[in-house]
Write a structure and sequence with these properties.
The protein is built from 2 helices and 2 strands, in the order H-E-E-H. By secondary structure, it is α+β, with helices and mostly antiparallel strands. The protein is elongated. The relative contact order is 0.16.
Length: 66
């Protein structure tokens, strides 16, 4: 099962634009986190932090480099 696909699709008319922004952030983040900021029970901010997986061979320091 692909974690970026919803288990049960929700009709677009059933969600607000703010809820749609949260769903899009979730789907666009393969590794990382999505933070939803609320003010008086309303979504006011969506923060998406994406982690990038690096190949250990590519991130190793080069011999002789300073």
């Amino acid at each position: 099962m692909d974690p970026r696909k919803p288990v049960s699709p929700v009709p677009p008319a059933a969600v607000s634009p703010q809820e749609q922004a949260v769903l899009e952030a979730l789907r666009a983040t393969p590794y990382g986190s999505v933070e939803v900021v609320l003010h008086q029970s309303r979504i006011v901010q969506v923060v998406r932090t994406e982690k990038v997986k690096l190949d250990p061979d590519l991130s190793a320091p080069v011999a002789g480099a300073r």
